[in-house]
Amino acid sequence: MKLKPTDFIVILTGAGISAESGIRTFRAQDGLWEEHRIEDVATPEGFMRNPELVHAFYNQRRRQLQEASVMPNPAHLALTRLEQQWPGDVLIITQNVDNLHERAGSQKLLHMHGELNKIFCQFCKTRLIWNTDLSTETACPHCGNVGMLRPDIVWFGETPYHMDEILRALAVCQLFISIGTSGLVYPAAKFAQIASQAYRIETNLQETEISGSFNKHLIGPAGSEIPKLIEALLAREFLV
Ligand code: APR
């Protein structure tokens, strides 16, 4: 396959792209799900049972984004370069709730699992940028109700955001690149199959459950594999 300059590139990112920025992935040996139970901190039922526990989990993760050591890494920066320099359209779909793509300068970005630095009020439905801690005592700045705010995170059992736009993009793109996702969580795990008309590249430290859905595999850390791949794409050397 040789890409044309007008081709539409869709990129899916998962926790692996942020690992080299110091953010833990979920399913590694030292991953977040080793220490926390999904059903306690990442489901609507868990939030109803123990909202303070859920707030504490996301407060800690939100605070981490402000640590000086947590910065976009060469993979995030390379994707921004692609968006700026590729003549065709580029869309990033991220499962990550960190803000490293936008801090790297990406503009066409869909957060399908929400964002750590946003919250919403379950009473008045207002969505707000939020960079400090949240508790059951926090009043909604919009409607004043107390105990109605929640992290703007898509929990297990909830529908990911932007699905119409995502499915439309997957159906028409010419290149689909998946970076640093285990392929264990749906619907993202199905995206490579949905984009079956596209050439599909997977980048990961290892093979995944869904490696069979891709045409090409780049095995290695995103921070070194992605800049090389993007350079080759921008140099139009991309012959496979
Ligand atoms: N470079 C490339 N890939 C990496 C790197 C790296 N430096 N480090 C880790 N990986 C890979 C791992 O091999 C693994 O396959 O990233 C993947 C991370 O997988 P998960 O921890 O399962 O994260 P992700 O796929 O993003 O999880 C999907 O599950 O828990 C939910 O909502 C949460 O968005 C998350 C979703």
Automatic annotation (TrEMBL):
What PROSITE patterns does this protein's entry cite? Answer: SIRTUIN
The compartments listed are:
Cytoplasm
Binding positions for Zn(2+)?
A: 121, 124, 140, 143
Q: Give the residues the record marks as binding substrate.
A: 58, 61
Entry keywords, A to Z: Cytoplasm, Metal-binding, NAD, Transferase, Zinc
Q: Which domain of life is it from?
A: Bacteria
- One GO CC annotation: cytoplasm
Concerning Pfam families, the annotation shows:
SIR2
What's an example of a GO molecular-function annotation for this chain? NAD+ binding
Q: Where does NAD(+) bind?
A: 14-33, 95-98, 180-182, 204-206, 222
Needs which cofactor? Answer: Zn(2+)
Location (main, coarse): cytoplasm
Question: What InterPro entries has UniProt attached to this entry?
Answer: DHS-like_NAD/FAD-binding_dom (IPR029035), NAD-dep_sirtuin_deacylases (IPR050134), Sirtuin (IPR003000), Sirtuin_cat_small_dom_sf (IPR026591), Sirtuin_class_III (IPR027546), Ssirtuin_cat_dom (IPR026590)
Q: Which family does it belong to?
A: Belongs to the sirtuin family. Class III subfamily.
Q: What is known of its domains?
A: 2 residues (Tyr-58 and Arg-61) present in a large hydrophobic pocket are probably involved in substrate specificity. They are important for desuccinylation activity, but dispensable for deacetylation activity.
State what protein this is by name.
NAD-dependent protein deacylase
* The species this protein was found in: Methylocucumis oryzae
Gene encoding this polypeptide?
Answer: cobB
